[in-house]
Design a protein that fits this description.
Blueprint lengths: L8 E5 L7 H14 L4 E7 L18 E5 L2 E4 L3 H12 L7 E8 L11 H11 L4 E6 L3 H4 L6 H17 L11 E6 L9 E4 L11 E6 L5 E6 L12 H6 L2 E7 L9 H8 L3
Helix pairs in contact: 1-5, 2-3
């Protein structure tokens, strides 16, 4: 892309909500990237939208309110927020870059498939815009920090500049690439480096439900996540984060298993 050093219009969103601390971190990152002559626009969910993935509000309208200069809250998902920005708030001057995050908690491994942070970046890519999702792994070491997003705040701007200058943004003409960055659960000084890694999976870990009975006798189910410190696929994003590396994963909105196409064609195609 090579846009660093030029005036940039950056859109930021998240899934933790417009008042989330991680969005404050992303605002600082975006402001540094945009520079004194650039612009940072915020269109973020009015309330927390964690776990909504790439959901859009297709069957009901999205209420949007201006909270301040270039700052808007939408009663919708991160993908809704991107659509609201492109189709309304920034319609006449679309953003040069979309940043989604900084999520409170990692979006590596199987978490990718549930993540609203990823969903915001994915929608931007589907709209033809460069997009990056950013998430901060949380753990015992970050809990002891005055700023648990320190690793993302310190290392984020430089890494994003490198992606903008050096990464592949146009290899797939049908599904534009976007990038998923996860910062490890340590302070900025503890980060060992950067690893470009595929999406992995924590072995034996998945989401489940926990029954709960309310005082009125009604039964509810809480969705529960698994351990975030379980071993992951070797050399994957999970593995890199657990070893205190920042992970960078190129992604695209295409769920096709391309490795299986040839065999399946041979087995099923006729005529």
């Amino acid at each position: 892309m090579g846009q660093t050093g030029t005036k940039m219009r950056i859109l930021i969103t998240n899934d933790d909500g417009i008042n989330a601390p991680g969005l404050e971190t992303l605002t600082a990152i975006a402001t540094e990237l945009a520079g004194p002559s650039g612009e940072v626009w915020t269109v973020a969910p009015a309330f927390e939208q964690s776990g909504v993935a790439h959901c859009i509000s297709y069957v009901h309208p999205t209420l949007i309110a201006e909270m301040g200069p270039r700052r808007f809250a939408a009663e919708g998902t991160p993908a809704d927020c991107v659509l609201a920005a492109i189709g309304d708030v920034m319609k006449d001057n679309p953003p040069d870059l979309v940043l989604s995050g900084v999520n409170r908690g990692n979006n590596s491994g199987e978490n990718v498939m549930y993540s609203g942070t990823i969903g915001g970046a994915m929608e931007a890519a589907l709209q033809g815009l460069p997009a990056i999702a950013l998430s901060q792994y949380m753990g015992q070491r970050t809990a002891a920090l005055a700023d648990p997003f320190e690793a993302a705040r310190i290392h984020g701007p430089r890494l994003i500049r490198q992606l903008l200058d050096r990464a592949d943004w146009n290899a797939d003409q049908d599904f534009r690439l976007f990038y998923n960055i996860n910062f490890p659960a340590c302070d900025a000084a503890g980060v060992k480096g950067v690893r470009v890694a595929p999406q992995g999976r924590r072995r034996g870990i998945g989401f489940g439900v926990e029954p709960y009975h309310a005082p009125n006798g009604r039964r509810f189910l809480w969705v529960m996540g698994g351990s975030q410190t379980a071993p992951g696929t070797p050399d994957s994003d999970v593995d890199a984060n657990m070893r205190d590396y920042i992970s960078v994963t190129p992604m695209r909105p295409d769920l096709t298993c391309h490795a299986s196409l040839a065999g399946l064609r041979g087995a099923l195609e006729e005529g």
